[in-house]
Amino acid sequence: MEDLKKSNAIASCDIRETDKRFVAHTYNRFSPVIVKGSGSLAYDAEGNEYIDMGSGIGVNAFGYSDPEWAAAVANQASLLQHTSNLYYTEPCAKLAKLLCERTGMSKVFFGNSGAEANECAFKIARKYASDKYGSSRNVIVTLKNSFHGRTLSSLAATGQDHYHELFTPLTPGFDYIDANTAESLDELKKKLAGGNVCALMIECIQGEGGVLPIDKDWALKAQELVHANDALLIVDEVQTGNGRTGKLYAYMNFGLEPDVVTTAKGLGGGLPIGAALIAEKAAGVLGFGDHGSTFGGNPVCCAGALSIMSRIDNELLGEVRRKGELLRSMLLGRPGVKSVSGMGLMVGIETERPAGEVVKDCLNAGLLCLTAKNRVRLLPALNIPDELLVKAAEIIVSYAARPQSAQ
Ligand SMILES: Cc1ncc(COP(=O)(O)O)c(C=O)c1O
User: Is the pLDDT of residue 405 over 70?
Assistant: First the structure.
């Protein structure tokens, strides 16, 4: 047994070295080499078990190797793994229908990631405006502290300067306002009156920005201003969507009526898929040849997504809300926990100790968590068992406070 552990440790070292040598250094990886998972438990090459409170950054909606999802994916892969978008396929059509039926949207464009879903939304907003008002109406307003992706346009949409610095010139035509202040509503009003704004794009809860929910009144007033000017409201639900907040999409918690909703992450349950859901008003904007993607609507990804989306029903959403409350009740008021933000199973914990240190200690104790700015961020699988949530909360709390001597 000891020999086996030793040889696995050597194999892990080898993988880390090979990765460091050949994979571009864009990720500052933690040490474990994850080899398999089951439900909300992950295992590394050395046999260590981890409770996963990150689900691959909100992707593995039903955890690792969910049997229904895996069967849907395997079955589709054995029938038809891909064909071009020159032809119809059943999973793509069925998934688009399900998404429209569940949201009241009229059309769906499929891509492969969140950033691509956002790119599609930008194109819709600009074409909607240029068809009606001419091409000078092309500015997309987004919120400061937002995150919308890594492509040059979604970076431009991201309202955080430090992401921009090394990559200028970015796509022009993006402008930024603060969220949640009376002044920023005035600013939005002025920008709209200028006549060149085609859309406002928001996250209902800024994920990478620190798990910060938008103020409902502010969002409703902003929507009113946008719609009064025939601009589009785009809601980026890449992280908040697909059941994460206890509603199918987070905008449903806020009474918003977006014209375009973008989503990805949890939609595919672990395979790459992104989608722009388009309301009736903008449904006819993109025509033949205006947009496309080789892999968009891939049958295997869509079959996986269908398995996920068809199970995110009212009962499951109720469970997400209940589990979220359970988690909050385990965290709030505990020593070292300064505040808890988020909704459902999208949770940000402001800890006394720096979030990065808490996450490292949790990893060593067998718990995978994320950070978002100064918070420990949790995005567990939607079906995580209560006992794992309770265990996870206890581990986080045990590392949240500064040691007495340091205070
Ligand atoms: C709100 C939001 N939008 C867009 C993206 C980009 O998604 P992707 O990495 O799939 O391109 C992310 C990723 O974290 C996100 O959280």
Answer: no
In ligand 1, the atom with minimum distance to the C-alpha of 115 is 11
Confidence bin at 208 (pLDDT 50/70/90): very high
Residue nearest to atom 8 of ligand 1 (CA): 114
> How many angstroms separate the alpha carbon of residue 127 from the centre of ligand 1?
23
Banded model confidence at residue 377, pLDDT cuts 50, 70, 90: very high
Name every residue whose Cβ is closer than 8 Å to that of residue 102 and which is 6 or more positions away in sequence. Answer: 248, 309
Say which DSSP state 248 is in.
Answer: S
Q: Is 113 in the pocket of ligand 1 (CB under 6 A)?
A: yes
Which ligand 1 atom sits nearest the alpha carbon of residue 207? 16
Q: pTM for this structure?
A: 0.97
CATH superfamily, domain at 2-61+314-406:
Aspartate Aminotransferase, domain 1 (3.90.1150.10)
Tokens (6 digits) for 106: 């009229």
Of the options 3.40.640.10, 3.40.47.10, 2.120.10.30, 3.40.50.720, the CATH number for the domain spanning 67-309: 3.40.640.10
Measured from the CA of 154, which atom of ligand 1 is nearest? 4
Question: To the nearest whole number, what is the mean pLDDT of the chain?
Answer: 97
> Where in the chain are the domains?
2-61+314-406, 67-309
* Distance from the alpha carbon of residue 39 to the mean position of ligand 1, in angstroms: 23
Query: What pLDDT score does 238 carry?
Result: 98
Count of beta carbons in the 10 Å neighbourhood of residue 97 = 12
Give residue 242 CA to ligand 1 midpoint distance, Å: 14
Q: Using CA atoms, how far apart are residues 230 and 359, in angstroms rounded to an integer?
A: 45
Strand 34-38 to strand 41-44: parallel, antiparallel, or no bridges (unpaired)?
Answer: antiparallel
